[in-house]
């Protein structure tokens, strides 16, 4: 039985910049009108209103290959992923607060609405083998497990 350990990882940064001209504002008299899409007024803001959203991600895995027989290998391992909270360069994220019937700037009077997702552990299972010179079989499976803290 042979053992071939392997590991890998990656760091990613997603960035999106949008360019918008002449954005508008829709005003609703109350929450009920908002939910029913019954606006009381609309105004347009002339000029350039850019947005720039970024989000980071970090991932890695460890895996071992176990050669059970000359024609059968099992793969076992763990994967970890951390999806970071998105940010907006100009601090324009807002959250609708039903109690106050208003939009509140994120991190300014309200808790962040985007929580960092850093509890992702995924088991990895796989096998590959040959039955004859022409028949080969490979299978891989993994699941996502969210760990919660209490």
Q: What would you call the structural class?
A: mainly beta
> How many H/I helical runs?
1
Overall 3D shape: elongated
Quick check: average pLDDT?
76
Main pleated sheet? 7 strands, antiparallel
Q: Give the topology string: H per helix, E per strand.
A: EEHEEEEEEEEE
Count the strands? Answer: 11
Helix content: under 10%
Radius of gyration equals 25 Å
The span between the termini is 42 Å
Low-confidence stretches: 145-150
Beta-strand content estimate: over 45%
Could you characterize the architecture of this molecule?
This protein is mostly beta strands. It has a domain at 2-13 and 55-146. 3% of the residues lie in helices and 64% in strands. The chain is built from one helix and eleven strands. Strands 1, 4, 5, 6, 9, 10 and 11 form a seven-stranded antiparallel β-sheet that branches. β9 (117-130) and β10 (136-142) form a beta hairpin.
């Amino acid at each position: 039985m042979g053992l071939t350990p392997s590991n890998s990882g990656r760091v990613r940064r997603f960035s999106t910049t949008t360019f918008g001209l002449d954005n508008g504002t829709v005003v609703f008299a109350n929450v009920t009108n908002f939910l029913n899409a019954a606006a009381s007024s609309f105004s347009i803001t002339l000029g350039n209103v850019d947005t720039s959203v970024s989000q980071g991600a970090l991932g890695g895995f460890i895996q071992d290959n176990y050669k059970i027989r000359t024609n059968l290998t099992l793969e076992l391992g763990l994967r970890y992923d951390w999806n970071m909270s998105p940010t907006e360069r100009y601090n324009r994220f807002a959250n609708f607060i039903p109690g106050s019937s208003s939009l509140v700037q994120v991190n300014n009077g309200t808790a962040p609405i985007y929580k960092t997702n850093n509890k992702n552990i995924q088991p990895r299972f796989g096998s590959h083998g040959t039955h004859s010179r022409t028949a080969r079989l490979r299978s891989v499976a993994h699941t996502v497990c969210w760990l919660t803290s209490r």
